[in-house]
Amino acid sequence: MNEEIQSYNEKLEWPFQEIADSLASTIDKQLTEAENKIWHAHPVWFLDGNPIVGYSKQKNGLKLMFWSGADFNEENLNIRGGKFKDASIIYNAVDEINEDQLVKWLNKSREIQWDYKNIVKRKGKLERLH
């Protein structure tokens, strides 16, 4: 695990530390080609410089967000962004994570991508990559 991400996870209260470690481990195993780092104060994984998946501690739990998740057509990714194509799920215990489902979403995150990397250049307009 990336040292910055490990440090982020270690600062979380229990059970969020356990949830974050589980998510990071699965993401690292599934997106082996992804770059990962702390971005805007949260762990994020990138494919070719494009943000794909990340998580952050929120008031109501640990939020796992897929930048292009609204197009995955997955009912459990039910927290939709407004202006963008993101979708999320909140976890409050490690046993809430369905690993098969998470792997499915991570595979979709590779196949379905919107170009967030160039959103500033395009003045807020998103274009589909895959």
Biggest sheet: strand arrangement: 1-2-3-4-6-5
Total of helices: 3
Q: Tally of extended strands?
A: 6
For this structure, the quaternary state is: single chain
Main sheet summary: 6 strands, antiparallel
The poorly predicted ranges are none
Strand content: 25-35%
Given the C-alpha coordinates, what overall shape results?
A: globular
Distance between the termini: 27 Å
CA gyration radius, whole angstroms: 14 Å
From N to C, what is the helix and strand string? HHEEEEEEH
The proportion of residues forming helix, as a percent range, comes to: 25-40%
Q: Structural class, from secondary structure content?
A: alpha+beta
> What would the average pLDDT be, to the nearest integer?
90
Describe this structure in words.
By secondary structure, this protein is of the alpha+beta class. The chain is built from three helices and six strands. The protein has a six-stranded antiparallel beta sheet with strand order 1-2-3-4-6-5, with helices on one face. The chain is globular and about 40 Å long. It starts with a helix and ends in a 19-residue tail after the last helix.
